[in-house]
Amino acid sequence: MQPATEPAGDSVAARRRAVVLAGHVGDVARARAGLTDEAARVRASALGALARLGRLADGELARGLADADPGVRRRACELAAGAPDVAVAPALSDPDASVVEMAAWSLGERGERGAVAALGALAAPRGGHPDPLCREAAVAALGAIGDRAGLPAVLAALADKPAVRRRAAAALAAFDGPEVDAALHRCLADRDWQVRQVAEDLLSDDPG
Question: What is the pTM of this model?
Answer without folding.
Answer: 0.91
